[in-house]
Amino acid sequence: MLINEKIRLLRQQKGLSQAKMARQLNMSKNGYGNIERGQTNLSLTKLKQIAAIFDENLMQLIKRHDKNIINTMGNNNTGTQNNQNFCSLFLASCPCPKISQLECDLAKQMLINIQQSNKIKLMKQLNELLMEKIDRIEADKNLSTQQITPLPQ
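^ thats the sequence. predicted structure below, dont judge the formating
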């Protein structure tokens, strides 16, 4: 199950409307709808807000969702600051610090894997587009070479 599908399911189970979720997240209804349709990258801050609304552990929202990009880069944060911010957010929601730190490390690695997987997918798509463009250029080149061939006298 994708994270956006899980968010939709949890919202429905809690009996909340999209409009109410949007208000609680301080965003437009359309913006929230984009989250549920998987048309937006979620920040960790937004995930934490959603988890709080559902009274859910942040880890449960991101667990086993390897088909979505989760935007871990905040406003002008470096990767190190961002990892610390993520751990702070995560540890605040977990009662046992030792286990929580391990889960935090695991969650960070999961996020990195998700991002890398999606980067690879995007690079493959870009490669396909470039190959198609090369094929078109070569076809145009062959066509123009054939058109320039002088007529026999």
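Residues 5 and 68 are 11 Å apart (CA to CA).
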